[in-house]
Amino acid sequence: MTATRSGFDRPARDFLTWTRIEAGLAPATREAYARDLSDLFGFLRGLGLDEPAAVEPNHLADHLRSLSRDRGFEPTTITRHLATIRVFFRWLCANDRIPRDPARLLERPTRWRRVPGVLSPAKMRKLVEAPSPDQGRLWVRDRAMLELMYAAGLRASEVGALRLDEYHEVLASVTVTGKGSKQRIVPIGEPAVHWTNRYLTELRPHLVRFDDGRDRQRLLLSFTGRPLERVAVWQLVRKYAAIAGLEKVHPHKLRHSFATHLLIGGADLRVVQEMLGHADIGTTQIYTHVDRSRLREVVRDHHPRS
Asked: Which CATH number characterizes residue 144's domain?
């Protein structure tokens, strides 16, 4: 996990092995754990700490504060770091690697929830229309990628993992494999179908270079013919946001915008929950707080004293 060996290395390796073999967590989740722990250990070594048993609750709290204060991380990212820390130290304590759990008193991640940032429909249009022939021959793929992400509320990892047989042109839908390998079928609109078909017809045949069955079945391919990975999706979203003159745009903001725009349009919360793949409707309910103007309209139109 780090080039400098320390007393954190062996516990971290054992923990990550446990998440893979015994817990059976998805690769993306394990990678997030590894990144978060690497950040934590770097901070702790800066404090002169070199083993988990020496970590105190205040050290962990200082680390979380530094993620916001010094690195400008979003609340959702800090929540994920907090969840990683809690799971890691709970595992260490349960396996007698440390005498007590220093993360046990940290505030629960649900207390950190904030209303997510969203793009207006007009800004969303500017973003998805940003790819053009001026950006090179891959612009058609990038337009299809952005249209699919917005049309189906896809995470960066989900759009990159889409397979050819998971795109259903006739039904205008995609089958998405989300967190925990749970599948959901999400309808997509005509623009997403149009640009996906154009990409499949005009560009994808020229990108396929390998006989590897897995790679050949991925929907979105890189210029090398390999699947479009999560990091590349992040980079492309930021690239086209800059071209469109938009700031602080990341893949999850497209997902936030998808959910918010559906609810503003009158979609049922349970339907949005299903399309987002949320196990708990409480996770979806955060989007009901985004558009205050919609609440005012409802009161004006339906309250007898309005």
From this structure: 1.10.443.10
